[in-house]
Amino acid sequence: MNKFKAVIIGCGAIAPVHAAAIRASEHAMLYGVCDIIPERMEAISAGGGQPQGSPLRFPTLTAVLADPAVDAVHICTPHHLHRDMILACEQAGKAVVIEKPVAISLDELTSLQSLSVPAMTVLQNRYNSAIQRAKELIHSGEMGKVIGIRGSVYWMRDAAYYASGDWRGKWATEGGGVVINQAIHTLDLLDYLGGGARSIKGSMDTRALGDCIEVEDTAEATLYFDGGVRGHFFATNANHNNAPIEITISLEHGTLNYRGGKLFDGDWNLLESDKSSTGGESYWGASHRVVIGNFYASLAGKSATYPTLHGGLRATELALALYQSARSGERVEVVFA
After folding, report:
1. Which of 53, 90, 131, 211 lies 20 to 30 Å (CA to CA) from residue 218?
2. What SS3 class is residue 95?
3. Per-residue pLDDT tens for 102-112?
4. Helices (H), the chain
5. Strands 146-154, 119-121: parallel, antiparallel or unpaired by DSSP?
6. What DSSP letter does each residue of 241-283 carry, written as one string?
7. How many helices (H) and strands (E) does the chain have?
8. Who's near 114: CB < 8 A, 6+ residues apart?
9. Bond into 51 cis (ω within 30)
10. Residues with Cβ < 8 Å from 84, sequence gap 6 or more?
11. What tens digit of pLDDT does each residue of 45-76 get?
C-alpha cells in the first residue's frame, strides 16, 4: 500500500510527537524533515526506524514544496511563520497539518478561510477519550442543557524556556503568551463543549515573568454562549509546576468534572479516562497520534474525523479576541461562527 509522504518543518519540542504519530499511521510515512538547525533534523531522523529508510533532510520549505513526492507538510515552526507557510503549501498543492495557533492576527486568519487543500489543526485534546465522552453526554441531552462551564490552566514557564527561542515571549513573533501558546487548547475545549461562544471579555497581566517576556503570563476571560450561558477561563504560566487542566461543566441535571485526564460526575464517580500519553509531556494530552492518524486515514478515503481548519480558526480567534478585549476593556464578538 502506498503511504502519504509527510514532511515535518520545524524540528523543535513538538516535532518528535508528530514524527511518532506519522510513523504509527498505517497511511503515512515520515518522508522528510526540515529545520534551519541540522542537529534538530538529525534528532528527529534518529527517533525511530521505518521500512522506507531514514527521512530526507530538506534545507528550506521551498525545497520541500518543490519535491513532487511530498503529499503533506506538518508546520511546527514559530507562530509568526504559520500563515505564510500554510499559503505556500496551498499554492504547491500539499495537504497541511498545522500546529496551533493557525496565525497571530485576525487579518491572517481571514486570509486562510477558503483554503483549497486538506488541512488539519492540531487541537488534539478534543479527541481525548474523556473529552469525547463528555461531548457525547452533553449531546445526548440525558443530563439536560449546559448552564455553565469553566476551565483553568496552572502551568509553569521560566526564563530558560523563553530563552530557548528568540521568537518566544514577543508579540510580533509568538503573538501572545500563555493564552495563544499553552492555554489555547483549554479555551478551545470550553468553546467546543459549551456549544460555541458568541463573544468574550477578558483581561491579562504579566505577574512573574516581566523580566524575560513582553507578553502576558496570566489571563482570565468570560465567554458568552447562546441562551445566557457563560463560561469562565483562567490561565497562568506563573505556577510552581505544570498541573493538569481542569474543566467543570454544569448541566441542568448534573455536573461533569474533567481533571487529570479523567472524567467524573458530580459525585466524583469515574466515567472515562484518557488514553496514556503517546509522546511529549503528559499535560499536552494524549491524542496527537489519534488525530494525525485520522487525518491520513481521511486522505486515504476512510471514514475518520479530525480537527478541521475551521476549529483552528475559531480557537485562534478566541485567543486574539481575548487580547483585543483586554486592551480595550470591551466585550468582543466572535467572527468565525
Report:
1. 131
2. strand
3. 999 999 999 99
4. 15-24, 38-45, 61-66, 82-92, 106-110, 129-140, 159-163, 184-194, 288-299, 309-328
5. unpaired
6. S-PPPEEEEEETTEEEEEETTEEEETT--EEEEPPPP-SS-GG
7. 10, 15
8. none
9. no
10. none
11. 765 444 456 899 999 999 999 999 999 999 99
How wide is the angle at C-alpha 258 spanned by C-alphas 309 and 286, nearest 5°?
55
With beta carbons less than 8 A apart as the criterion, state whether 31 and 70 touch: yes
Lookup result for grid cell 468582543: 332
Laid out side by side, the sheet with 28-34 consists of 56-58, 28-34, 4-9, 72-75, 95-98, 119-121
Average pLDDT over every residue of 247-266: 97
> How much of the chain, in percent, has pLDDT values that exceed 70?
94
What rounded mean pLDDT belongs to the chain?
Answer: 94
What pLDDT score was predicted for residue 49?
45
Chain CA centroid to CA 300, Å: 23
Q: For residue 103, give every residue at least 6 positions away whose Cβ sits within 8 Å of its Cβ, in sequence order, or none.
A: 79, 82, 83, 109, 111, 112, 175, 316
C-alpha grid cell for residue 55? 527521512
Is-above-0.85 flag for pTM? yes
**Taking residues 271-284, what's their average pLDDT?**
69
- Distance in angstroms (rounded) separating the CA atoms of residues 204 and 327: 9
In this prediction, residues 156-179 reach a mean pLDDT of: 97
